[in-house]
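Supplementary Text 2. Reproducibility record for the structural model of the 403-residue chain.

All settings were left at their defaults, and a single model was retained for analysis rather than an ensemble. We include the record here because the model underlies the residue-level annotations in Supplementary Table 4.
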Amino acid sequence: MNRIRWSRLAIAAASACLVAGFVGVAASAQPSGKEAAARTTADPVKVGIIYSRTGLLSAYGAEYIQGLRLGLSYATKGTGKVNGRKIEITAVDDGTDPAKAVTAAKDLIGQGYKIIGGSVSSGVALQIAPLAAQNRVLNISGPAATDLITGANRYTFRSGRQSIQDTLAIKEIIGKGVGKKIVVLAQDSAFGQGNVAAVRTHLGGRGHTVSSILVPLSASDFTPYAERAKQQNADLLYVAWAGTTGPALWRALDQQNVTRSVTIATGLAERATWASYVPGINFLSHYVSTAPKNKVNDWLKLQMKRRNQAPDIFTPDGFVAAQMIVRAVQKGGGDDVDRMITALEGWKFLGPKGPQRIRPEDHAMLQPMFQVRLRQNGSRYTAVPVKTFSPGNVQPPIRPFPS
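Retained model, structure tokens:
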């Protein structure tokens, strides 16, 4: 297990100041009785973040962890403390590997951590959620988009969006122009399969047919899959893709003239990929920094600007995770998991994306989604907001917890 250690994190709204410690924490003897009661308000609240520092989704992991640091600064007003207790983060690299993530989670839980989170990969998230329920710890999943995290169990929440929200945003964008034949081009993973299911449920029916082309995660040559997509003669090609192979896929689609022969809809990925897209794509967006107009997003953009950066697609997922951690500790003390869960259920708050709410029935994260288009000026690309979809217009159906 590759554990990343930070002694303390220096971030503040205007200048660097100490906020939350990012450290590696070893197991230690636990006090009991009166000694425990006396120490509990002074002890740090230990939070284990298991995320993809390396692996296929490492770019998403970098955005998430940066958002988490900034979110802790914002939510604690630069102190890194809640009710006098320091928020101490242990960040562990899962390498985008579910087996490594499970090992890390068991280790952290065994050390007494009551709050874990950070899943970037859907495959990882689906392995961590049952562990949270079995061990009764609070789990705040990250950018992982699988719909199965919503309603997984009472101990699991999510700080990001889910695949159904992507699909409902595309439905709003395309409207009645979906056409009769829909093909989903996606990776053969929990994320890709979840997108196929969401499209079948929410875009299929009423005379529409939905088929899929699933690409192995190990693939490096995408020409055969682009050719298959072209041969389908679809009315709509819905591309659901994640990770570093995205640009190669779009090159293959362009070389096979797929992008000129069919209507394409997809989610706009991280900024580094924008130059790989071709004109005419219908983009949904989880987040671009130019779309939301609110004080939280303004604060986030200012902090990133001071670092000569801009927030990226999954920066808000980390930021919101931090807001949720602070809320849970404020109301639940950091040790009482049931109280922390109650504090989060039904909570309404303002995140970088805008107004958000945690639905108590299944812990779905209700949030805005966006339609954007890319504007090219020489070698520079800008995401231009077109429309904001309110949380209510893209909310997934309730998925009750298992009885």
